[in-house]
Amino acid sequence: MLTEWWEEMYWVKSPRLTLNFNAPLPLVSGPGSMSDRLATKAFTEAGIQYTIAFSATELASRVAAVAAGLGIMIVPERLITRGIEVANDEDLPSLPHTRKGLYIRDALDLRSVEGVARALETCIRPTSSNVITVKIPDRPKMRRRKIQQA
Prior knowledge:
The protein has 150 residues and is α+β, with helices and mostly antiparallel strands. The protein has a domain at 9-96: Periplasmic binding protein-like II (D-Maltodextrin-Binding Protein, domain 2, 3-Layer(aba) Sandwich). It is 22% helix and 25% strand. It has helices at residues 34-46, 59-67, 114-124, and strands at 3-13, 25-29, 50-55, 73-76, 85-86, 97-102, 130-133. Strands 1, 4, 5, 6 and 7 form a 5-stranded antiparallel β-sheet that branches. The chain has a two-stranded parallel sheet with strand order 2-3. Helix 1 (34-46) links the parallel strand 2 and strand 3 (50-55). The radius of gyration is 21 Å and the shape is elongated. The two termini are 41 Å apart. The model is unreliable at 134-145 (pLDDT under 50).
C-alpha cells in the first residue's frame, strides 16, 4: 500500500429525475462494482425495491445514463459532475464511508516508480478526505542467482 483514505459515498441522479418510492427505484448498475454492491445491499437492508434501469461496465457510460435521467447510482464526491446532483431524498438509505487507496504489490521496487505513483496519487486522491499516507520503505536490492546450465 502506498496511500489510503476514506471517502463518503452519495446517491446521485439527474436534476430532472423525480424518485417514486411507490414503485421499484431505477438503479444504474455497474455489474460487480463496489457502487453496485453498496446500492443493492442498502436497498435490501432498507426493504426498498429496485430495478436495473441501465447496466454498463464503463463508469462514464453509467454517469451519462444518470445524467440522462435513467436512474440513480452511488458515487464518491469526486465523481459528481455536471448534469448529476446528490439525491437528497430522506427515504434513500444512508451509505457508509468507503476505503480507497493506491496499492502497489509487495514485490515491486517502489523507489523505481515513486514519481509516477505520487503523480497518480495527486490525480485520484481528493483533498478533502481523511488521508492516511504510508511512507515508502527502502527495499534491499535483490541479488540475482546465476543459473547453471547442465
